[in-house]
Amino acid sequence: MDFSLSEEQQLLKDSIEKFVSSDYDFEARRELVNSDLGYSAEHWAMFAELGWLGMGFSEADGGYGGSASDLMVIMQSFGKGLVIEPFLANCVLAGGAVAELASGAQKEALLASVIGGEQQLALAYAEKQARYNVANCKTQAQKSGDGYSISGEKIAVLNGGNADTILVLARTSGVQSDEAGLSLFAVPAEAEGLERVAYTTVDGFTGADIKLSNVQLAADALVGEEGNAFTALNRVMDRARLAVCAEALGNMETLLTKTVEYTKTRKQFGFTLSFFQALQHRMADMFVECQQAQSMLLMAAMKFDANAEDAGTAVSAAKARIGQAAKLVGQEAVQLHGGMGVTDELDVGHYFKRLTIIDTLFGNTDYHLKRYTQAMS
Q1: Is the dihedral of CA 326, 328, 334, 337 positive or negative?
Q2: 359 belongs to a structural domain
Q3: pTM reported for the whole predicted model
Q4: What angle do CA 76, 56, 223 make, to 5 degrees?
Q5: Are residue 236 and residue 138 in the same domain, yes or no?
Q6: Contacts of residue 195, Cβ cutoff 8 Å, sequence gap at least 6
């Protein structure tokens, strides 16, 4: 089987890595993290101009790709540079939910502006009690006149503070944790009754907690069919898991490269660190973990693109394995750099923080090990 990138994917990879190496140095990233917006509007416009924002969507939805393999190329390259622009929130989560559920008119209204870089979206699905279970939803949407009234609270909404439109998962029927009865609504961020508390996460990205108090929506705010959002969102979650796995792989590859380079120059007792065999073994372990992570990711992405029956199981296997690899590689990189490995001035600690957060996104290692073993039993 041919695991090599297509010509188009190789060009995409080269283009993003060139941007990261020439225009996305660590000091510039730190300034963006501390800015009011939390990322670069100029970079975002460039992403749109180069077509990167459309690569996560099929041609039928106005995009240029749509496969998990295309997404893997983008996210792995972004991971190498710790890119903080909200690609995951817009083009994988919220945009993915629209692509899976929305009508043609809704896709035209929402996706075209996302691909063009004019509109920011966010997907609000997580709640305090949910523990990675999308179906565990207390937020209620009730019929109100010709539309709906929504009340509830959402947490850890990626890009929630900058979004123009927030896609809110709410229960229109059934009881808490029922998979049936979940619906998705497109809520304007400035809607009356919607409050959001924005913040910067420990890894430099942006998030928000959102409270909805009797937010009134027209009937056309419903995205897709009422009560049938769960299956589509489950697929969106699996796609997002593949995306962050690819990002983690990019993070780990960069940490490995930086660690090897550092040990070739840092001296102890008159010798470079790379001279010591014990440290060579530790870096060899880091290399093996990166290779195994890449293999798991490739398998999961191919099964996802092929709509294989066990695609979800393969995604969980990859998420669990890459979570374990990320912990080892991140910790080794920090330890081999010594005390400076956790300073704010050195990028190594920031890669480690991002890897730590990625493990918790969309289900941590323990969650996916359990999901995998249940599917295999």
Answers
A1: negative
A2: yes
A3: 0.93
A4: 135
A5: no
A6: 210, 211, 212, 213
Question: Does the pLDDT of residue 215 top 90, yes or no?
Answer: yes
> CB within 8 A of 105, min separation 6: which ones?
none
Whose structure tokens read 């593949």? Answer: 242
Res. 12: pLDDT tops 90: no
Encode pLDDT of 238-271 as tens digits.
999 999 999 999 999 999 999 988 888 887 777 8
DSSP code of residue 157 = -
Contacts of 42 (CB under 8 A, 6+ apart): none
Q: What is the pLDDT of residue 2?
A: 55
For residue 283, is it within any domain? yes
* The two structure tokens encoding residue 315: 């995604």
Q: Supply the pLDDT for residue 58.
A: 86
Statement to judge: residues 79 and 154 lie in one domain? no
Residues 112, 135 within the same domain:
no
Find the CATH number of the domain harbouring 183. 2.40.110.10
1 found inside a domain: no
CA distances from 346 to 82, 202, 255, 283 (A): 13, 15, 12, 19
Which pair of structure tokens corresponds to residue 165? 């439109």
pLDDT digits (tens, 9 = 90+) for 124-158: 999 999 989 999 999 999 998 889 999 999 999 99
Give CA separation, 21 vs 14, 68, 99, 244, in Å: 10, 24, 32, 21
Written as one string, the DSSP assignment of 45-94 is HHHHHTTGGGTTS-GGGT-S---HHHHHHHHHHHHHHT--SSHIIIIIII
- Domain assignment of residue 39, given as a range: 7-119
Q: Inform me whether the pLDDT recorded for 3 exceeds 70.
A: no
